[in-house]
Design a protein that fits this description.
The strands form two sheets. A six-stranded antiparallel β-sheet has the order 1-2-3-10-5-8, with no helix packed on it. It is mainly β and 115 residues long. It has strands at 12-14, 23-29, 38-46, 51-56, 60-68, 70-75, 78-83, 87-90, 95-99, 106-114. Helix content is 0%, strand content 56%.
Length: 115
């Protein structure tokens, strides 16, 4: 059994995909932890005004799971408000980015899998 706690793990601060400001992230699971096509699982905290820069992936898919807070997600040029409970699918070759437009931190999980 493998259990990792994102609230107790050491986080790193930095810019994500050339976004605005610094976000905190914890890489809970790495590609080597899986026997499937999953590549990683991140827990992220985005302070107000920060963003994950608009970017594109190749042959993989990602899920963004909003745990707390709200913001704006851009996928292929379409901007939508997102909030706690929303799960956003980014399919292969899609462009996407996320901005915290609220006054509270935005907390999320990000999974990525190769195709």
């Amino acid at each position: 059994m493998i259990i990792r706690n994102y609230l107790e793990a050491e986080s790193k601060s930095g810019r994500s995909h050339s976004g605005q400001g610094e976000v905190q992230s914890v890489k809970l699971f790495h590609e080597s932890d899986f026997e499937s096509s999953l590549k990683f699982l991140y827990y992220m905290v985005m302070p107000p005004g920060t963003s994950i820069g608009y970017h594109q992936h190749g042959e993989n898919e990602e899920l963004y799971i909003i745990l707390e807070g709200s913001g704006q997600m851009t996928v292929n040029g379409e901007i939508r408000d997102v909030k706690a409970g929303d799960v956003i699918l980014n399919k292969r070759n899609w462009s996407h980015g996320l901005e915290n437009t609220a006054a509270e931190p935005l907390r999320l999980l990000v999974y990525e899998a190769d195709l």
